[in-house]
Amino acid sequence: MLDVRFLYRTTLGRRFVAAIGIALAGFAARHAWQAERQSSALRDEVKWLRTRLADKREVIARQRQEMSRVAGAVDHLARTTSALGERAAQARRLAHMEQSRVETPGILSIAATLDGGMSIESEDAGHALEELAWLEGQATAASDSLVVLAALVKQRETEALHSVPTLWPVHGLVTSPFGARTSPYGEGREMHPGIDISARYGLPVTAPGNGQVIFAGRDAGYGGLVIIDHGGELDTLYGHLSALYVREGEPVHRGQALGAVGATGRATGAHLHYEVRVNGTPVDPRRYLVN
Ligand SMILES: [Zn+2]
Hints:
Number of helices: 4
Structural class: alpha+beta
Bound molecules: zinc ion
Radius of gyration: 50 Å
Shape: rod-shaped
Low-confidence stretches: 98-122
């Protein structure tokens, strides 16, 4: 058996123990250094993870922002299209097209594209926004056309309104009303198909509404005669004229002079014989005249 105390006592023994001590110290130092290195790597990893987390948070925030922008754009487009629908309805109302299901192709294609666009689950919010911006442009363009269309319809409506013979062709007393009357020529009861308006000889007789001259000439009974077609099967007649200022086929506008008051044909004095005919049947002109 080797006695340790003996070994220690010997020079060789002391060296051996010292060597073991150094080895142990070296081992401990190495272990400590490794632990330090590991913890440093760990700190780095944590730092990197924190950075990634921050990045992810930023991405999420950006996505949320994009989503809210897309939602806002969709909202705006929805409002635009609903305004468009209202304008279309207004245009249809003005054009009296309530019964018809006529839609402008522009609106239909926009609605179709909108539906298609909504079903596309695009990941790219930017692309979606671009598409929405384009759609909005289309909607605005269609809306503008509708405004123009509505204005045109309104204009046509106004024109139609201006065609109705509501103005007095000449101002004066009505000396003979429309309907059954005693003949001024002593021929018993007769039907007077218009009204006689007393007016000074030569005074201008004006168009009570827009229309087209369908007769301008002489007639045995009516004398100098002008007939105006106002559209909608509505005609007006002006009799006993002393002069004619219009020709057949000529368009006339409200207030335009057609001829001059006279006593031509079967007339007892200067006056205008004025008739309104609906589908060729004389009606009381006073129904149309606005005071
Ligand atoms: Zn008359």
